Amino acid sequence: MSTEDDSTDETDGSVTATVMESTGYQIGSPSTGTVAVGDDDDPPVVSIAGSSAITEGGTASFTLTATPAPQTALTVEVTVADSGAFAASGQSGAQQVTLGTTGTATFDVATDDDSADEPDGVLTATVQPGTGYASSGTHGSASIAVHDNDVATACVSDQLLTRVEGYYENNQSRPPG
Question: Mean pLDDT lowest for which of 32-46, 85-99, 101-115?
């Protein structure tokens, strides 16, 4: 009996042979034998890509792709990092994404639309090592820019203005928030 050497990653298996009763011989013990068959194919490699830049309050979309596509559903560990304060509650940190037998899944990260003027930020999703797959060495991480949509405001108060010999002195301070 021989096995087929294919290029599909699959679970290890076994082959069992059983001697059947017939005339002309006696069956000894044991009458069955089992041989383990180990799969020698590499697991799927998972890569990740990000959508174009978004504005706070929008949704960042990441696409995970397993090559080759898995034979059964595959759960992939992903970590989401936020360089600002844009990710909605529960959207950053460790996440799980399930890829079906198509080998592709989209993973969304919601962002908050706040009223604070702040520098633009970046959301980065990274495929973590896991069981049944390998993370791509070149495309295991993707980043999406998040643009702040709040406008800086200026506060002017007559208490901050003084006149000295024909000139005004203007003291400015950034409003809280």
Answer: 32-46
- DSSP letter at 118 equals -
Interval 102-131 mean pLDDT: 95
CB 111 within 8 A of CB 146: yes
Convert 93-126 to b/e letters by CB count within 10 Å (16 or more is b): eebebebeeebebebebebeeeeeeeeebbbbbe
Q: What is the pLDDT of residue 168?
A: 60
What single-letter amino acid sits at 60? A
Query: HSE on the CB side for 32, CA within 13 Å?
Result: 6
Q: Which amino acid is at 63?
A: T
151 φ/ψ angles, rounded to the nearest 5 degrees: -100, 135
The pLDDT value recorded for residue 41 is: 67
| Residue ranges of domains in the chain, CATH in brackets | 45-147 (2.60.40.2030)
User: ∠ at Cα 60 (54, 65), nearest 5°?
Assistant: 135
Q: Which of 13, 5, 69 is nearest to 40 (CA)?
A: 5
Compute CA 106 distance to the chain's CA centroid, rounded to the nearest angstrom: 9
The token pair that represents 155 in the structure block: 């506060």
